[in-house]
UniProtKB/TrEMBL annotation:
The lineage of its organism: Bacteria, Pseudomonadati, Pseudomonadota, Alphaproteobacteria, Rhodospirillales. Belongs to the leucine-binding protein family. This is ABC transporter permease. It comes from the Bacteria. Residues 1-18 form the signal peptide. The keyword Acetylation does not apply. It comes from Skermanella stibiiresistens SB22. It holds the Pfam family Peripla_BP_6. Keywords: Amino-acid transport, Signal, Transport. PANTHER family: LEUCINE-SPECIFIC-BINDING PROTEIN (PTHR30483), PERIPLASMIC BINDING PROTEIN OF ABC TRANSPORTER FOR NATURAL AMINO ACIDS (PTHR30483:SF6). InterPro entries: BCAA_transport, Leu-bd, Peripla_BP_I. Residues 23-367 form the Leucine-binding protein domain. GO terms for biological process: amino acid transport. The keyword Ion transport does not apply.
């Protein structure tokens, strides 16, 4: 009798265990080892973990509809084929519902296809190509943080209006650079400026000497650096070493992260203007979150991309919770578009039908060393650029999801 009771109990326990729902799995596909590692990488994994913890803190059950939430991460090595293979493995065998971060636009465009074909979700918080909400838009992708159009509009417009009429561009030779180069040309020309020439540089370039000499020889008033991460750091450092910034020419970084400023130091980059969607010291909400982030990341403060990983996952979890399911990726994305966004890092906003997350952007200027009063106190905020002004008009993107 005892044996049969024990057996029944074991069967009941096994049945209960079998009925436990599979966890919601978030895959952070990022750069752990190359030029974007500082601005995404382990910091993005940390930001996603913070989003899950904050979501659970507001959920009485401590989980998403009784489901646990798990995170996996991998290094895509800035190779679209490697990234696509990881995404397929995660989805086919790992039960991953959503892929987040994906810095490097070529990687994001490739992974976006895998995600769409399998009806999962991609939260593109790391890449910047405006094609992600244009000709390559997808019903399964949300493009958070920024894009090439908004960065070009904010920075190039301000520079041309302040007298920088003639430009020479140094462009990273891949999807992000190509998209940004075109956006810069359009904005500069529209604002009354002129592109005198340009050169394309390999990704992860260590020696910019020949490219910078071409830019210097062009006589352009502005040398536009259309690159990011380690490439931005190396090109600025070498431009200063060559004395380019000591003359009449000025450098303009189309993409600049606080990690780049920290690595270069204020004496090197003081006075540089650029556009960003986030700064840790903007307000009480950004400061409180950034202090928690810094505690987890050896006092390093968050980049805008790491902030974007947190905010996009936060909104995704709310949407998946609202519909009670994460398996139908398109349905979750539709809910994300339907719900207004609200988080302490980007504030209130919306998501358009093309997947573009809308929020204000900011024109910043790097402080002089004597103006910095405490660690990571690096920026003056020169201008708020309203969302209505900085993002590409919906009708101009060429997205197939936009109905005429």
């Amino acid at each position: 009798m005892l044996a049969s009771m024990v057996g029944a109990a074991c069967l009941a326990a096994a049945g209960a265990q079998a009925q436990q729902p599979a966890p919601l799995r978030i895959g952070v596909l990022t750069d752990m080892s190359s030029l974007y590692a500082d601005v995404t990488g382990a910091g993005s994994v940390s930001a996603v973990a913070m989003a899950i913890e904050d979501f659970k803190a507001k959920d009485a059950t401590g989980a998403l509809k009784t489901r646990p939430i798990e995170v996996v991460s991998a290094d895509h090595q800035n190779k679209p084929d490697v990234a696509s293979a990881i995404a397929r493995e995660w989805i086919d065998r790992g039960g991953v519902d959503v892929i987040v971060d994906v810095p490097n636009s070529a990687v994001a465009l490739a992974v976006g296809n895998v995600v769409r074909d399998n009806n999962k979700v991609m939260l593109a918080s790391g890449p910047s190509s405006s094609d992600l909400t244009g000709k390559s838009c997808s019903p399964n992708t949300i493009h958070w943080t920024y894009d090439t159009y908004s960065l070009a509009t904010g920075t190039a417009t301000a520079v041309v209006e302040s007298g920088g009429k003639t430009w020479f561009t140094l462009t990273a030779d891949y999807a992000f650079g190509h998209a940004m180069e075109q956006d810069i040309k359009n904005v500069v020309t529209k604002a009354g400026g002129q592109i005198l020439g340009g050169v394309r540089t390999p990704l992860n370039t260590q020696d910019f000497a020949s490219f910078l000499l071409q830019a210097q020889g062009s006589g352009a008033e502005v040398i536009g650096l259309i690159n990011a991460g380690g490439d931005t750091i190396n090109s600025i450092k070498q431009a200063v070493e060559f004395g380019i910034t000591a003359g009449d020419q000025r450098l303009v970084a189309t993409v600049l992260y606080i990690n780049d400023v920290h690595a270069l130091g204020l004496p090197v980059v003081q006075g540089l203007q650029f556009t960003e969607p986030f700064y840790w010291d903007l307000n009480e909400g950004t400061r409180a979150w950034s202090e928690k982030f810094a505690e987890r990341n050896a006092t390093r403060h968050p980049s805008s991309l790491q902030a974007g990983a947190y905010a996009s996952v936060t909104h995704y979890l709310r949407a998946a919770d609202a519909i009670g399911d994460s398996k139908d990726g398109k349905a979750v994305v539709d809910k994300m578009k339907e719900m207004p966004t609200d988080d302490p890092l980007f504030g209130k906003g919306t998501i358009r039908v093309d997947g573009r997350k809308l929020h204000d952007m900011y024109l910043f200027e790097v402080k002089k060393p004597e103006e910095s009063k405490y660690p990571w106190d690096y920026y003056h905020m020169r201008k708020v650029i309203p969302a209505a002004q900085v993002w590409r008009p919906l009708a101009e993107g060429g997205c197939s999801l936009v109905k005429s």
